[in-house]
Write a structure and sequence with these properties.
alpha/beta, 5-stranded mixed β-sheet, 134 residues, Nucleotidyltransferase, domain 5, 5 strands
Length: 134
């Protein structure tokens, strides 16, 4: 007769133990989702959140309200680090990017040092089609 072991798997939740004075918040606003990443000044990721992780599905993931909820979760994790200033790096043209920045700026305990827009812009365009031969 086999004996079952009663080993329970425990979910490991990593606590942010670093104390920072400056943090970076990356906002990737695509058409279908908004990804918010919290990093230290060196770029090492401390926490991340998305609209999909907050429980929104389908077309509701791309709404400004969904990105606001994702930013609020990141701001809670940011308070654990003790950071007082943030740099914001925005990428993409989704509808959640403006609301994400407004939510961060509404937090009275944070000072926004800079906002960078690193959305890629095409230059020169694509190569034109070949001339039609009749």
């Amino acid at each position: 007769m086999a004996v079952k072991s009663k080993v329970k798997s425990k979910a490991v939740i990593k606590k942010i133990r670093r104390k920072l004075s400056l943090a970076k918040i990356y906002i990737n606003a695509a058409f279908n989702n908004t990804i918010i990443t919290l990093a230290d000044p060196n770029g090492q990721v401390l926490a991340w959140s998305t609209s999909g992780k907050m429980g929104f599905k389908g077309s509701r993931k791309s709404t400004p309200f969904a990105s606001q909820k994702a930013v609020e979760e990141i701001l809670e994790k940011l308070n654990e680090t003790g950071a007082t200033a943030v740099d914001i790096i925005v990428k993409g043209v989704g509808s959640g990017r403006d609301q994400a920045i407004r939510t961060i700026s509404a937090n009275q305990s944070l000072e926004i040092q800079s906002i960078h827009d690193v959305t890629p812009v095409p230059h020169g365009g694509v190569r034109p089609k070949k001339r039609r031969r009749v």
